[in-house]
Amino acid sequence: MRSLAAGLLVLLLSQDAWCARQASLATGGACPLPFTKVGDECFYLSDVKKNWNEARRRCQGLGGDLAVPSDVPALDAFVFGKVEGPGVWIGGTDQYNEGVWNYINGDPIKAQDWSETQPDDYGGGEDCLEIRSYFEPPVNDYVCSVEQHFVCEIGTVPEIKCPKPFIRIGKECFHLSTTALSWNAARRQCKLMGSDLAVPSDVITLDAYVFAKTKGPGVWIGGTDQYNEGVWNYINGDPIKAQDWSETQPDDYGGREDCLEIRSYFDPPVNDYICSVKQHFVCEIQF
Ligand SMILES: [Ca+2]
Ligand SMILES: [Ca+2]
Ligand SMILES: [Ca+2]
Ligand SMILES: [Ca+2]
Q1: The CATH homologous superfamily of the domain defined by 167-285
Q2: Predicted local confidence at residue 22, as pLDDT
Q3: Residues of the signal sequence (predicted)?
């Protein structure tokens, strides 16, 4: 039994978060959570303290890497508004080539960002890059094994503006039809609108949106096995995730279920159904 209220809440919250983020953006793309936009870059200040190498692994686990800030004073203001420090790791090291300092992407460290007398390789053992709260400028070389907060960075995701009547859900542009058509006619109708049947990256989010607007029970999306019985993929060739299929589906019930739908009272919602049934459908603009 699905919880429609919970689904709606998730959708509203995510739309709110998105709107808030949109409003805060001057230029460029958006930052995926948990990253925050600072200037044109997406940073995440860790909750935990780790040594430099472990910090880098944590950042890579989030799909990014340690920060390579284009504007060190801006990052410094962001970081030391949130933690006292005193040191916070960023993405530079000379541990593989003593005395040669670059950011991990190969960019040079600007001369004006180094604190006075740094890098000093103090005690012969300072090989990792940090910003230090009471240094100005703040960049310093420090002992890699010290556990302290760190800043991760990730690339922005492109802004997507969905042309009407399509609406944006996550990174995608969907339109729930006002008419009910067979699967093949639905696909033709989507193509007339410059789109195709939907290939949702997140079926659960689409499901929450769709069944807040229509009772269903079934709504077509972009998959079929009518040309190759038993072989299920989305129309763009992507696999249908195992966890999205409703239990015991696809069952090709009666030997005549060849088109993909989401079904309001199935959870997970993906089901194979009879292509000739006329029902609402979701179109998506592919970029
Ligand atoms: Ca060193
Ligand atoms: Ca130093
Ligand atoms: Ca079938
Ligand atoms: Ca079925």
Answers
A1: Mannose-Binding Protein A, subunit A (3.10.100.10)
A2: 37
A3: 1-19
Q: Containing H/E element for 169?
A: strand 167-169
Cis amide linkage into residue 158, ω under 30° from 0: no
pLDDT for res 28: 61
Collect the ranges in the chain with pLDDT lower than 50. Answer: 1-27
Q: Which residues have a beta carbon within 5 Å of ligand 3, which is an ion? A: 225, 252, 258
Question: 266: closest CA among 232, 218, 206?
Answer: 218
- pLDDT value at residue 262: 98
Ligand nearest to the CA of 131: 2
Instruction: Report pLDDT for 169.
Output: 80
Question: pLDDT value at position 271?
Answer: 98
pLDDT at 159: 67
Q: Separation of 280 CA from ligand 4 center, angstroms?
A: 17
Q: Encode 254-275: b = buried (16+ Cβ within 10 Å), e = exposed.
A: eeebbbbbbbbebebbbbbbbb
| Residues 95, 78 contacting (CB under 8 angstroms) | no
Residue 160 Cα distances to 96, 235, 252, angstroms:
41, 22, 37
Burial class (CB in 10 A: 0-12, 13-18, 19+), 124: exposed
CATH number of this structure's domain 26-154, picked from the four choices 3.10.100.10, 3.40.50.12160, 3.40.50.620, 3.30.2290.10: 3.10.100.10
pLDDT at 53: 97
- Tokens representing residue 85 in the block: 């420090």
- Which distant-in-sequence residues (6+ apart) come within 8 Å of 63 by Cβ? 32, 154
